[in-house]
Design a protein that fits this description.
By secondary structure, the protein is mainly alpha-helical. It has helices at 2-21, 27-48, 54-96, 101-126, 131-156, 171-192, 204-233, 248-269, and strands at residues 160-162, 166-170. It is 78% helix and 3% strand. Strands 1-2 form a two-stranded antiparallel ribbon.
Length: 270
């Protein structure tokens, strides 16, 4: 537990540091996300083992490295063309290496999850308004949801949520996670409401409560999805980089799903 707490505190310090650096230049946060994407894809392709050919693995890693620079200079359109170019490359490798179709599919999958999921934060980071609040929500809501889910779960226990996927999760814990997400979102709104740019018809506080609940729900979905992936590959953790936590994907699975939803909210609804 001590090791887990120390690692958690170190992670908070690193993320906080890059939040401060992005006030100087958002490129600092882009570099941070590039690191997360590269490390995340490395963990994912390593977990795939022999299911993915080495050439397809390198293709996924190169894609992860290239996403942030391409977005910086060419925006979302650049990422779309980059993905198509690498998908074509993977297809060519499939033919010339006479590889299994499974390897091609896994190479594409690694580019989407985790690379493109994490890339959603590139969009949030570059928004002209509300970018800091959006990124804070992507990191804070999952943390609040996880904390409340744990506290409520061990207090009330009750029926298991998905015993075949994650035997420790309970329905009461899941409900607590939704409550935690809503509370965390309201707190962030109250702290940042003076700088929040919004022109919608619905009350901002109601909007934030709804967004917080849905984001917390997707955080829990992301956690379960990661459990399914690990069960599929027959592993306990995605990596060993973070003592007490496993790999980077074990730590940011909920953040990735939260970021994808928040990108939709901030770019289309706010």
């Amino acid at each position: 537990m001590i090791k887990r707490c120390i690692t958690g505190a170190a992670l908070i310090a690193v993320v906080t540091g890059f939040f401060l650096l992005r006030t100087i230049d958002i490129a600092f946060f882009e570099a941070f996300l590039c690191f997360l994407m590269t490390l995340g894809v490395f963990e994912m392709t390593r977990a795939m083992g022999s299911r993915i050919r080495a050439a397809h693995k390198y293709s996924a890693l190169l894609f992860a490295v290239a996403v942030a620079p391409i977005f910086h200079f060419f925006g979302i359109g650049g990422i779309c063309y980059l993905f198509l170019a690498f998908a074509l490359t993977d297809l060519i490798l499939l033919v010339f290496l006479n590889a299994e179709v499974e390897s091609f599919a896994y190479a594409l999958a690694a580019k989407v999850y985790p690379a493109l999921f994490i890339a959603c934060m590139l969009v949030l980071n570059a928004m002209p308004h509300n970018s800091t609040l959006a990124l804070l929500m992507a990191f804070v809501i999952p943390s609040c949801a996880d904390t409340f889910a744990y506290l409520v779960g061990i207090t009330f226990k009750g029926k298991k949520l998905c015993p075949t996927i994650s035997p420790n999760k309970t329905i009461s814990g899941a409900i607590g996670g939704l409550l935690g997400g809503a509370i965390g979102t309201v707190v962030l709104y109250l702290l940042c409401k003076d700088s929040f740019v919004y022109g919608g018809a619905i009350s901002p506080i109601i909007l934030f409560i709804l967004v917080g609940i849905v984001t917390a729900l997707l955080t829990e979905v992301g956690d379960l999805a990661e459990s399914v992936i690990k069960r599929k590959f027959g592993i306990k953790d995605m990596g060993k980089l973070l003592p007490g936590h496993g790999g980077i994907l074990d730590r940011i699975d909920g953040v990735m799903f939260a970021a994808a939803f928040l990108t939709f909210v901030y770019t289309l609804l706010i």
